[in-house]
Amino acid sequence: MTHNEVANKTRFLAAYDEQLRTDAETPSAINVTVHGPLRLVTFMNGRGFITYQDLGLVQKDDIRRLVSEALAHYQNSPEITRVEWKTRGHDHAPGLHEALLENGFIVQETESIMIGEASALAIEAPLPQGVALRQVTSEVDVRAMSAMADEVFGEPISTEMADALLHRLGLDDGMELWVGEAEGQIVTAGRLEPVPNTNFAGIWGGATREQWRGQGIYRALSAARARSAIRLGKTLIHSDSTEFSRPILERSGLLKVSTTTPYQWKR
């Protein structure tokens, strides 16, 4: 990593902690309860989410107590069926992994926190012949986009994500849904989430059908979203990235500044 990349990584991570680890992280929350350093968030469809800006100078006993108390908060609400605790690799959190496992949380796949200048991502990326990108807003398109993502990730096709996305569109909070189509079929998709009162826009939910990978389609979709972010006045792009999409974003100038690992609890 060059000296300039090290400096950018430090700057990006500081901006991430300061600007994004607040209410900006949960724009569609139904309720947020503050418990010490924790933000205990409730979303639609019985989903809980635990996050925080930092945990302070906590010790292992403090961590164990916080995990137990946070889980009890959700266990006392019968409508909550699952909870995610979002950890970050650069946090000071001694014993957190062990405390989460002790309380029935299951560790999920670690992802890379990627950040970079929107202008670096907003390249002119050629598309294969017959592929076109567009922004979608209709219920039919949103449900088709969501079903494609479920298929790509090997999940049963569910209405839950589509319902949540349609709810978000109804809020008119700036979220944009983008797809790439070929032969009348959605072959790639993702969303853009401009974060109010920050320099950031997030790119999320990227999914591309296997037979269309390796042709630059996802990179073009990311570039389209970055150009839209710039039009909205955003200068930085962030994403939690799988190992599939991380190299694509790195080639576009984004840097891995840390990691994030979710832990899931189900009733």
TrEMBL record:
Keywords: Acyltransferase, Transferase. The keyword Transferase applies. Pfam families: Acetyltransf_1. GO terms for molecular function: acyltransferase activity. Residues 131-267 form the N-acetyltransferase domain. It comes from the Bacteria. PROSITE patterns: GNAT (PS51186). Its EC number is 2.3.1.-. This is GNAT family N-acetyltransferase.
